[in-house]
Amino acid sequence: MTQIDELERRITQALDRIAQGVEALDAGAAAPAPEAEATPEAGDSDEVVGLRAALEDEKLANAQLEERVRALHDRQDGQVAGLQEQLAAHRESMERLDGELQRLRKANEMLRVTNQEMRAALEENVGEPHLINKAMLAELESIRAARATEAAETRAILDALEPMLAEAAQEPAENEGETA
């Protein structure tokens, strides 16, 4: 019970101090209007004039910093949008590559099965021309799929290199502009 009494006493003292501070603020002179703060008055001391000038300098510096932050934010948004576009292009390239790889796997599986059938037919000394044709078609499809996969891989590599090459081409132009 003594702890509760002690806490109650401390809270009451704190509230009294707050009330005294509010009364002191109310009793003090009313704050001058913002226009009055900005213009020096004849009775102002050098310290007040200096403080007002420092306040104006800080306001100007704050406005400049806010503008810089806004410009950085806009530039960052542009970079993020560019990176998102690059990511979408890379995803599309990877999807094409994956599709071609799946096609290649399927063609190679078909070629393997056809070769097993041909091998079995030859072991039985039965020459079946349709198996030879089937094997040739499977091999052609495998070759086409391999070519398409190579083309998709090449496209994916080019898609990854193009932004870097464009950036590298811009850097010398920017450096020439700075030295001129």
Please give a quick description of this structure.
89% of the residues lie in helices and 0% in strands.
Description:
The protein has 180 residues and is mostly helical. 89% of the residues lie in helices and 0% in strands. The protein is built from 4 helices and no strands. It has helices at 2-27, 34-38, 46-123, 129-179. The radius of gyration is 40 Å and the shape is elongated. Residues 29-38 have low confidence and may be disordered.
What separation lies between the terminal Cα atoms?
82 Å
Structural class: mainly alpha
Average pLDDT taken over every residue:
81
Helix content: over 70%
* Dominant shape: elongated
Features:
single chain, 180 residues, mainly alpha, 4 helices, elongated
Topology:
Elements: H1 2-27, H2 34-38, H3 46-123, H4 129-179
Helix pairs in contact: 3-4
